Amino acid sequence: MLYWALMFLVIALLAGLFGFGGIASTATGMAQILFVIALVLFVVSLFAGFLRRNS
């Protein structure tokens, strides 16, 4: 998931560089959403690992 977030970030940067503001803002939004989802999944798996190890 982080791979896709980075790909959307690269697309946003390239689109912004070439002047495609709409595409850049859409790609930036998708990159942010995917990054937050990946971060939440990481934290959930981290807590699940701690709970499993302590039981």
From TrEMBL:
<dbReference type="InterPro" id="IPR009760">
    <property type="entry name" value="DUF1328"/>
</dbReference>
<keyword id="KW-1003">Cell membrane</keyword>
<dbReference type="Pfam" id="PF07043">
    <property type="entry name" value="DUF1328"/>
</dbReference>
<keyword id="KW-0812">Transmembrane</keyword>
<keyword id="KW-1133">Transmembrane helix</keyword>
<feature type="transmembrane region" description="Helical">
    <location>
        <begin position="29"/>
        <end position="51"/>
    </location>
</feature>
<dbReference type="GO" id="GO:0005886">
    <property type="term" value="C:plasma membrane"/>
</dbReference>
<keyword id="KW-0472">Membrane</keyword>
<protein>
    <recommendedName>
        <fullName>UPF0391 membrane protein RSO01_36980</fullName>
    </recommendedName>
</protein>
<comment type="similarity">
    <text>Belongs to the UPF0391 family.</text>
</comment>
